[in-house]
Amino acid sequence: MLKSLWHWLKQLWQRLWGKSPQPQEAVTLPEVVATPQPLTATDYEFMFHQLLEGVAHGWQSQRVEKFFNQVGDRATVTDWVNWISGFGYTVLNSPQPNAELARRLELLAIQTQNIPHVSEVGAISYALSTQLMLRQTGGEVWEYEGPDG
Fold this sequence. Notes:
- There is one protein chain.
- The protein is mainly alpha-helical and 149 residues long.
- 60% of the residues lie in helices and 0% in strands.
- It contains 6 helices and no strands.
- Helix 2 packs across helix 5 and helix 4 packs parallel to helix 6.
- The longest helix is centred in the last third of the chain and has 18 residues.
- 16% of the residues are buried.
């Protein structure tokens, strides 16, 4: 206690009379460069649903491209294609109808068809969308049989 009081008084005296205490050596900490972690399956699912939600709300090709550019340091297009394949397998094995998911996947395919580096994502999304729609109709394909058909 007395030591800390003496130290405080000594510093006060030095500040008042212009003597600064000896500068202490600056300790430099090593710079930590954080490398982005790859996406987990949960991350892929969350981000893919965000992407589909955005497309459903009117995202155009430029916004979709920006999405993929922003996550590009954590996942490649090949990673996305592989994940969507697994996701598609799960969705197709589910007994629940997924008309809304099929519609959003089709919208994603439309928005990515003119973005060369992510067109693969659009192609697999379109294939999954088609399979979901065919499953809902029982595989029936309706054809127009009118007078001009």
